[in-house]
């Protein structure tokens, strides 16, 4: 393992240290692509656990350059099925003799992946799907996990602290969630929770048969449909694929915003469309959740993009723990300002998600970003979701969907009003501070003959400044979509008053 990964890591570390913040030359980009292919081949040859890890790394542009990511995106989870005799032994250890539990059990799996396999069977007269751990998968994960943890200890020798943090975050998150993925009692609980949360939304979550479900075996109702990747077949049976793209994207983003957990693996194999147009979701081993703080600041981050405000974007990245606090704020804000200008358009809804991700990838790789574990699954889910929906509708825009949902649910207005309250609070604090400038200034002000000596000037300053401030508040009240004129009005009013006070 070491001889396969070490040369790749050395080249990668050299590039991070010598080219941070720079675009690679064509020659350097070609070299990175070759190294990316070597990494792809190494992970593919090391087995299912490393394939899974590579898939997760392919969604982490804060760690890997685009050339590596393009190669790792090719990693597939499909593997040859395990010998059925071993699978049968595992089922019987947990549930009892196969022929006594099931009326019928087909030995050829209908799906086979690195961590588990799915079979078709009949249970109490009902057609069911039986998901079973791949034989030996727990031992394999423990062994690979021990190796990965050992390798983490040496990361600091090759990469800077932010990259080491991000890679450690990926590995720890992977090892935590991979245990959840092979524990089918946890998956059963996820299914039951989402079945309750998504009831009445045109979504099918398979029913769990708890009496024949264990840590290694999951029995659920069987549901057939057309895979969401079979676009032409969907159109042939009359499905409006543009509408479907909107429906699926709103479903997954809505789970993030409103539900205690969200399905974090929307790849094409996990979504089908039933005869009645219902969305059938499979595989609930990989789910995510966002705590209140992360959800709040993720929403505010999108709102900051919507308002095209680089300063607020950086503020929210810091709140999310996604940016090194020691980073040069001016440089990072300038980077976002240029990126927003490059994207063009009147609003964030006009931006193409793929172009935004491309620009974000460049910014992330050039600046000291470090996506926290809380956001790992969300970012992975959003990237996969965008790709799935673009196949259904080439004009699909995920950012437009996100912004429309935030607007419908009132999140953007909440953020805007929070900004107003924060601004007014800061203004009041500044006024109080000015009033505490010192006894000498106060004595100077008190000594002035405001009526006879400065009365004319006071009226010229106080009246217009008060009018401007009041007009700004009215503008904020009636126009929440463009707050800049209001803020400028408030600042102008304050400057006039301050200037008048200091000149007396």
UniProtKB/TrEMBL annotation:
<dbReference type="InterPro" id="IPR050154">
    <property type="entry name" value="UbiB_kinase"/>
</dbReference>
<keyword id="KW-1133">Transmembrane helix</keyword>
<dbReference type="InterPro" id="IPR011009">
    <property type="entry name" value="Kinase-like_dom_sf"/>
</dbReference>
<dbReference type="Pfam" id="PF03109">
    <property type="entry name" value="ABC1"/>
</dbReference>
<feature type="domain" description="ABC1 atypical kinase-like">
    <location>
        <begin position="74"/>
        <end position="314"/>
    </location>
</feature>
<feature type="transmembrane region" description="Helical">
    <location>
        <begin position="484"/>
        <end position="502"/>
    </location>
</feature>
<keyword id="KW-0472">Membrane</keyword>
<keyword id="KW-0812">Transmembrane</keyword>
<protein>
    <recommendedName>
        <fullName>ABC1 atypical kinase-like domain-containing protein</fullName>
    </recommendedName>
</protein>
<comment type="similarity">
    <text>Belongs to the protein kinase superfamily. ADCK protein kinase family.</text>
</comment>
<dbReference type="InterPro" id="IPR004147">
    <property type="entry name" value="ABC1_dom"/>
</dbReference>
